[in-house]
Amino acid sequence: MPTRPTWAEVSLPTLVTNYKLIRDYVASQATVCAVVKCDAYGHGATECARALEAAGASWFGVTSADEGVELRRAGVAGRILLMSGIWRGEGEAVVEHSLTPAVWSADQISEVNNAAEKQRKDRFPVHIEVDTGMARQGVSAANLGYILEAARKAKSICIEGLHSHLASAEVVDAPDVEAQLLAYQRALEQLAAAEIRPACLHLANSAAIVAHRDSWKGLSRSTSLIRPGISLYGYYLPFVTAAAQPSETQGPQVEPVLAWRTRIIDIREIEAGQGVGYNLTFVAREPTRIATLAVGYGDGLSRALSNKARVLVRGEYASIVGKISMDVTTIDTTKVPGAQIGDEVVLIGEQDGRRITAADLAANAQTIAYEVLCNINKRVPRNYVG
Questions:
Q1: Residues near 108 by Cβ (< 8 Å), separated by ≥ 6?
Q2: Taking a C-beta distance cutoff of 8 angstroms, is the pair 67, 45 a contact?
Q3: What SS3 class is residue 8?
Q4: Are 101 and 108 in contact (CB under 8 A)?
Q5: End-to-end distance of the chain based on CA atoms, in angstroms?
Q6: In the chain, domain spans
Q7: Are 289 and 362 in contact (CB under 8 A)?
Q8: pTM (whole model) above 0.90
Q9: Short-list 132, 87, 131, CA closest to 107
Q10: Using CA of residue 6, residue 12, residue 18, residue 22, what is the dihedral sign?
Q11: Distance (Å, rounded) from C-alpha 329 to C-alpha 357?
């Protein structure tokens, strides 16, 4: 079927290399749970999980039961952690497809236990999420005892894991991280007092793996997990100190996995004083060559990049001018010799030795690379390389 000349290229070999760099960084200390939630941060969960499993990944992190079932139906055999727990009525699907849910309420425990009993699954594993200070999800310290009592009465499940999430993992000396680690240790002590010793302990996301090694080193569990997400796809949040100063912290040297490309579909010359696009927010100061690209905010190119970001054409940078429309974007190619209809344009990626990353676009839009990547929607076909 014909498609618009807009596409993303996903390098599976680069993804696998990033995974191996992270795996080797924590070797003998922790097991990698490769986070492929939100369609693998826009890269394609099925294809990425298959490639990672072939490279040795044995754990995968997703948001919800539907994402987990999708991976199972695609043939992914490894453990699948439901990081945002389960919703009412999902227990039977969770047990049927051998998904591992996060739980933090008696209702969730009952839901899973009833499904496990019905399907005659003994000691079905769950991971308790404890809220150590982020106040987003997870059981509070004050209520942890009630959850442990509910789990004790649920004869068909077992508490395999205890986990939490750090609010300021990219801040290398954040006092709230230290407080969260202490709260996590206290939760572990509470479990130990109840004679529960979970095999899987995990707190560390991409940033914490590098900036807070004590969140995964020395947890004294052979199956302690780390949960890299954005770093698998080639990015980190900028590391800073509590005073918001840049940090020199170095982690695995991962590379971006995804490139986003489009083509020029129109070129026109305009005179000085002519406006471009909705509300004419760009007005030419001199004769200008305007090229129109087959991509817009309907594809996930943020409207916040209007008149701010740039692209690559024939190895040269060209500025986005005018407001980004739903289906097209206009750029200034006046200083790009020979630019013509059909030329390939790089939104994210490399061309002739120059590079634009998702982090660059994020800086222009005052957001984070996560959002830039996740916003590239299904209208943009993914081409898998390697």
A1: 85, 86, 101
A2: yes
A3: strand
A4: yes
A5: 23
A6: 12-233, 258-385
A7: no
A8: yes
A9: 87
A10: positive
A11: 18
CA-wise closest residue to 376 among 353, 347, 342? 347
pLDDT at residue number 247:
86
| Average pLDDT rounded to a whole number, residues 37-44 | 98
Q: Are 76 and 50 within 8 A, CB to CB?
A: yes
Q: Are 178 and 192 in contact (CB under 8 A)?
A: no
Which CATH superfamily includes the segment(s) 258-385?
Lyase, Ornithine Decarboxylase; Chain A, domain 1 (2.40.37.10)
**Cα gap 114→86, rounded to integer Å:** 14
- Report d(CA 172, CA 318) in Å as an integer: 36
Neighbouring C-beta atoms of residue 45, cutoff 10 Å: 22
Q: What is the pLDDT of residues 109-128, one digit of tens each?
A: 999 999 999 999 999 999 99
Burial 53-62, CB ≥16 within 10 A → b, else e: bebebebbbb
Q: In whole numbers, what is the pLDDT of the chain averaged over residues?
A: 96
Rounded Cα distance, 236 and 251, in Å: 9
Q: How would you classify the pairing of strands 310-313 and 316-319?
A: antiparallel
Instruction: Name the token pair of 246.
Output: 């840049």
What's the CATH fold of domain 12-233? TIM Barrel (3.20.20)
Contact 32, 38 (CB under 8 A): no
- For residue range 236-288, what is the model confidence (pLDDT) as tens digits? 988 888 888 888 888 999 999 999 999 999 999 999 999 999 999 999 999 99
Per the CB < 8 A criterion, the answer to whether 370 and 41 are in contact is yes
Which residues are the active-site residues? Answer: 37, 278
Amino acid at 4: R
CB 141 within 8 A of CB 164: no
Pair type for strands 124-129 and 157-163: parallel
